[in-house]
């Protein structure tokens, strides 16, 4: 791989930090692997001094979801420890975790790394001046992993078994002493490098362990179930061991001879060919070693059987000079006894233990000599004749490919080779004199189970030996026929009594029937056991029987418990704990059995737990049902995943069990090991459609949230649900039967929007900081979602209060587009309570500096000053009529649910007068008229006394307000009793020359029309020319006015001016003069009038309803 190029001006450490950050945040698996490889290149090859600084950060990736990343971490650990062995103490625990990884590829990579690091660790310990506690712990962890890998030679995966074989090979070579003629690689590790004073790893014990490992490897090599790939890997390892440690060469050659005679029966035709070819190559490699010359005849015979040509064999033979340099086996043995102590470096304190002779090899050698002595020409012919009936009529298809002609038939070496092949097969079958003499009993089961030598060594054990007809005559004997010889003639041992051989086996049906009967008897013995004081023992027996058997037995015990669960719940717990013991491997079983049946034990425990819970659920009439269910969840050793699903079902489907289910979850969520699993159940149901279920769950979650332990998880889930509102379609997480919605919803309905908000709004009451997240989502949501948020936010916001720092912060930093939400929040807070000074100040600032939207000021109007309210009044009345009503309600204090007791900045009188005084350039007259009409609708506020004060103050203004007469007419309509006051107003208007303001004059005329005949006295006070205009404008007034005058006495009529009487009698004409005068006086006012007075009073003033005062 190319070296990583460091950018100019960037240190290696900074570059590593940058790569670590990228690896931690990058979503792609391959990119993370690339980053870690670059880091390894930088640290290992450029800056080894940084290893200690970054090893923890890199090993943290051992928990990454990608198997490739975890493999890369293992590779880094391997290279790092080769550079700095002091890191072994830090990383050994990580390797131990990764060895148990769920990924086969990661397991294989860990074994490969340990194949190298094992030697590094031994060398580290050997060179250390003293062994520290860290070193001892590291060595202990490595030994534990060594045992794990040793078991993996029988792993389910073929590749793992191959890697484990290579690990065996490394252990055997590293934990033995080399010979003078050993083929050694450069820097190859051996026991010579370990001092005798190293207590933590004694050389003698390591060598003994290597011997045992070699035996196991040879057993695996000769096992019947081995695959072709594993077999070839095993042959390669044994060949390397034979060349590196010639002291094992004889045993390895013997193992290969036995393999040639007993190939695994599971191999296919092509696999047999591959294995034979590979065996030939390995034997040729061994033949090249000088130490093989003592077994060269056996090897050459084997090679001939395997199809090797004489030229290939002669080419592989070592030269005479090499053989001469190589000492014979006896000479090597003498040298090892008389040589210097440094050669084996053994001390008197460690006595040499005698090497146990392999009984199988001894049996093989004895049987071989037995056959060689008797394998004459006639004996061979008899064997062929005896075997002819067993030969098929057609040649097996694979026979031509494996058969090779025998070139040296009849020679002594070929006879010995045939004898050895026959001896191998006889020994494996458990017959022959060698089996009897050596005491070897072949194992019919797993080759890797420990040999049960105790029974073999018992005195009197009988053996089976071959015999021939007619005594010892080999020519008249039938080979292969076994006979039991008297113990006195063979060995001084007595055959041990084995019941399995003499007892008649029961049928499975009989076994099951007897076991069921026994169980039923124990179940019926409840009263007897209690009287006898052995109830506890009976309970243990029942729990054990229910655990050991399956099917009907478990159903019987379950039915028995459910018949009276209140009294038999302890039996249920005993049963559960017995099942749990099986799951955890507490019972006395071999490791192979534990691994094989662990999954079945887990399934059994799950089935028992779920059956007990479901059985209690169905007993709705049981008073103690809730208490027993609680105990079952609280006191069980483990709650399986299916149990959690049942608990979810109890919560969602059974209304009677909602409270107890939540109570159980509340307690279980406090258990650290699985608290996230139980919390997830509550979180998922927090959006349930059923209000009762949802409310109870939300209450539980808010309580947990307030406690703080799970605050972050709950908050993250709430934010996730909130951000669902930004998706185009609702996620499937919000639908499903567990949410009370059987059909998947694909559009944002009102119910789904509410489901996304329930949990968030619940935790918002406790954490006001989340209001900012709501504002961000509100900005990006669609219109329907925004409307729903505005409706649902009321409850949580009321709990925040106006003094909340986060609320004030939101007012200051309101995101663009969230103004509507902010206004709604402030409205909610000020609907029932007066705005706080701080809130008023913040709202004032945002209005003046950021968002000049007058709607912001509506909620805090009562907190503003009088001048501020008057300045924004023209903008306020331009809003929607409903909004204007709310504005006036706040100013007038007429909010039905308001609890505020402080005065408004404007009195009702000041508000109505201020509306009359709004400049027409700021707001059109029609809008002002609508605003005044809203005021008149508040009759509880605008009484006749208030309106009289308003009219009085308006009359005092100069010029008169345009809408004065409209207000007079509306007041008169609402309160007819004001007619006398209105007459005074009309008289004062004449004094103020009302005809000079056209709009007011038009209103004056209409008012006179409405108040006749009371207004006749006022009309007669008009100057003649304006009286003439009034009569011309309202001709219907003339006749009643004349009639009214005619009712006067003569003296009264004399007080009426003559010109006025002339107008009434139609004599004088002042129309032109009046119009000219009127036009001159009101010329400048007509330009500002938005519309004629008739349009201003187009019949919207209705007479008071009957009964109105």
Automatic annotation (TrEMBL):
GO terms for cellular component: mRNA cleavage and polyadenylation specificity factor complex. Residues 104-323 form the Symplekin/Pta1 N-terminal domain. The keyword Nucleotidyltransferase does not apply. Pfam families: SYMPK_PTA1_N, Symplekin_C. Transmembrane segments: none annotated. Keywords: mRNA processing, Nucleus. InterPro entries: ARM-like, ARM-type_fold, Symplekin/Pta1, Symplekin/Pta1_N, Symplekin_C. It is found in: Nucleus. Residues 319-351, 1074-1109 are annotated as: Disordered. GO terms for biological process: mRNA processing. The keyword Nucleus applies. Residues 322-337, 1075-1088 have a biased composition (Basic and acidic residues). It comes from the Eukaryota. Residues 853-1032 form the Symplekin C-terminal domain. PANTHER family: SYMPLEKIN, SYMPLEKIN-RELATED. This is Symplekin. The lineage of its organism: Eukaryota, Metazoa, Ecdysozoa, Arthropoda, Crustacea.
């Amino acid at each position: 791989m190319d070296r990583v190029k460091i950018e100019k001006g960037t240190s290696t450490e900074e570059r590593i930090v940058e790569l670590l950050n990228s690896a931690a945040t990058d979503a792609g698996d391959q990119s993370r692997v690339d980053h870690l490889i670059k880091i390894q290149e930088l640290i290992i090859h450029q800056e080894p001094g940084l290893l200690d600084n970054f090893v923890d950060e890199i090993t943290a990736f051992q928990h990454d979801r990608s198997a490739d990343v975890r493999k890369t971490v293992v590779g880094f650990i391997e290279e790092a420890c080769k550079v700095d062995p002091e890191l072994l103490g830090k990383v050994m625990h990580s390797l131990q975790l990764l060895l148990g990884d769920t990924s086969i590829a990661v397991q294989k990579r860990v074994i490969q790394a340990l194949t190298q690091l094992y030697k590094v660790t031994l060398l580290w310990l050997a060179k250390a001046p003293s062994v520290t506690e860290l070193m001892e712990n590291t060595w202990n962890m490595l030994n534990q992993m060594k045992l794990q890998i040793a078991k993996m030679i029988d792993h389910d995966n073929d590749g793992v078994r191959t890697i484990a074989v290579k690990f065996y090979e490394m252990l055997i070579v590293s934990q033995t002493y080399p010979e003078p003629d050993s083929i050694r690689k450069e820097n190859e590790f051996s026991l010579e490098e370990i001092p005798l004073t190293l207590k933590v790893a004694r050389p003698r014990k390591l060598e003994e362990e290597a011997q045992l490992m070699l035996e196991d490897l040879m057993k695996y090599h000769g096992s019947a179930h081995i695959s072709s790939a594993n077999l070839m890997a095993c042959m390669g390892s044994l060949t390397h061991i034979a060349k590196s440690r010639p002291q094992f060469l004889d045993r390895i050659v013997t193992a290969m001879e036995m393999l040639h005679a007993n190939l695994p029966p599971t191999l296919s035709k092509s696999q047999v060919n591959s294995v034979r070819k590979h065996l030939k190559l390995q034997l040729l490699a061994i033949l090249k070693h000088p130490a093989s010359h003592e077994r060269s005849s056996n090897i050459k015979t084997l090679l001939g059987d395997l199809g090797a040509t004489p030229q290939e064999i002669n080419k592989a033979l070592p030269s005479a000079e090499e053989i001469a340099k190589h000492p014979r086996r006896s000479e090597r043995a003498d040298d090892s006894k008389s040589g210097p102590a440094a050669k084996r470096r053994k001390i008197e304190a460690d006595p040499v233990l005698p090497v146990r002779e392999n009984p199988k090899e001894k049996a093989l050698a004895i049987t071989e000599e037995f056959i060689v002595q008797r394998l004459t020409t006639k004996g061979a012919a008899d064997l062929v004749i005896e075997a002819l009936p067993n030969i098929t009529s057609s040649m097996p298809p694979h026979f031509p490919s494996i058969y090779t002609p025998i070139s040296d038939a009849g020679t002594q070496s070929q006879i010995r080779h045939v004898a050895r092949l026959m001896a191998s097969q006889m020994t494996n079958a458990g017959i022959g004199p060698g089996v009897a003499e050596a005491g070897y009993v072949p194992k019919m089961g797993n080759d890797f189970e420990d040999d049960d030598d105790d029974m073999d060594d018992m005195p009197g054990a009988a053996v089976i030996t071959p015999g021939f007809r007619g005594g010892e005559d080999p020519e008249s004997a039938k080979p292969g026929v076994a006979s039991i010889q008297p113990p006195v003639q063979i060995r001084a041992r007595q055959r041990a009594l084995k019941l399995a051989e003499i007892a008649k086996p029961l049928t499975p049906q009989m076994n099951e029937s007897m076991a069921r009967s026994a169980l039923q008897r124990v179940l019926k013995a409840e009263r007897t056991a209690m009287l006898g004081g052995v109830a506890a023992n009976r309970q243990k027996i029942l729990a054990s029987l229910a655990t050991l058997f399956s099917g009907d037995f478990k159903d019987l015990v379950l039915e028995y418990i459910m018949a009276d669960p209140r009294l038999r719940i302890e039996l249920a717990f005993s049963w559960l704990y017995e099942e749990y013991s099986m799951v955890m491997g507490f019972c006395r079983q071999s490791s192979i059995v534990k691994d094989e049946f662990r999954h079945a034990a887990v399934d059994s425990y799950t089935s028992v737990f779920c059956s007990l819970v479901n059985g209690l659920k169905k007993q709705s009439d049981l008073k103690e049902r809730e208490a027993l269910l609680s105990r079952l969840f609280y006191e069980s050793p483990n709650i399986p995943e299916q149990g959690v699903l049942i608990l979810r079902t109890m919560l969602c489907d059974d209304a009677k069990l909602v409270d107890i289910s939540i109570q159980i979850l509340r307690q279980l969520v406090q258990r650290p090991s699985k608290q996230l699993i139980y919390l997830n159940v509550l979180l998922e149901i927090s959006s349930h459609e059923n209000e009762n279920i949802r409310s109870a769950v939300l209450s539980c979650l808010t309580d947990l949230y307030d406690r703080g332990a799970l605050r972050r998880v709950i908050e993250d889930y709430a934010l996730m649900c909130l951000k669902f509102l930004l998706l185009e379609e609702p996620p499937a997480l919000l639908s499903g039967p567990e949410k009370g919605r059987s059909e998947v919803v694909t559009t944002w309905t009102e119910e789904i929007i509410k489901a996304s908000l329930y949990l968030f709004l619940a935790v918002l009451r406790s954490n006001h900081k989340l209001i900012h997240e709501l504002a961000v989502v509100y900005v990006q949501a669609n219109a329907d979602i925004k409307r729903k948020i505005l409706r649902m936010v009321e409850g949580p916001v009321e709990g925040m209060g106006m003094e909340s720092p986060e609320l004030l912060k939101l007012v200051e930093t309101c995101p663009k587009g969230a103004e509507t939400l902010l206004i709604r929040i402030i409205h909610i807070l000020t609907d029932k309570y007066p705005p706080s000074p701080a809130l008023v100040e913040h709202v004032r600032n945002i209005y003046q500096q950021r968002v000049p939207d007058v709607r912001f000021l509506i909620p805090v109007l009562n907190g503003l000053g009088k001048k501020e309210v008057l300045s924004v009044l023209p903008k306020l009345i331009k809003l929607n009529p409903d909004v204007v009503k709310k504005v006036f309600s706040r100013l007038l204090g007429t909010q039905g649910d308001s609890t505020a007791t402080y005065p408004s900045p404007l009195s009702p009188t000041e508000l109505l007068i201020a509306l009359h005084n709004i400049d027409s350039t700021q707001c059109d007259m029609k809008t002002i008229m609508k605003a005044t009409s809203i005021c008149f609708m508040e009759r509880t506020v605008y009484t006749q006394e208030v309106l009289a004060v308003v009219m009085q103050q308006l009359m005092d203004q100069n010029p008169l307000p345009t809408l004065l007469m409209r207000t007079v007419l509306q007041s008169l309509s609402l309160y007819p009793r004001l007619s006398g006051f209105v007459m005074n107003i009309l008289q004062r208007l004449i004094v103020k020359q009302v005809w000079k303001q056209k709009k007011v004059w038009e209103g004056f005329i209409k008012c006179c029309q409405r108040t006749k005949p009371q207004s006749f006295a006022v009309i007669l006070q008009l100057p003649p020319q304006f009286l003439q205009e009034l009569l011309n404008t309202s001709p219907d007034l003339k006749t009643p006015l004349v009639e009214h005058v005619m009712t006067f006495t003569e003296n009264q009529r004399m007080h009426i001016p003559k010109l006025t009487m002339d107008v009434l009698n139609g004599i004088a004409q002042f129309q032109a003069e009046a119009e000219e005068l009127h036009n001159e006086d009101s010329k400048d006012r007509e330009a500002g009038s938005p519309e004629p007075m008739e349009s201003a009073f187009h019949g919207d003033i209705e007479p008071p309803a009957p009964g109105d005062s």
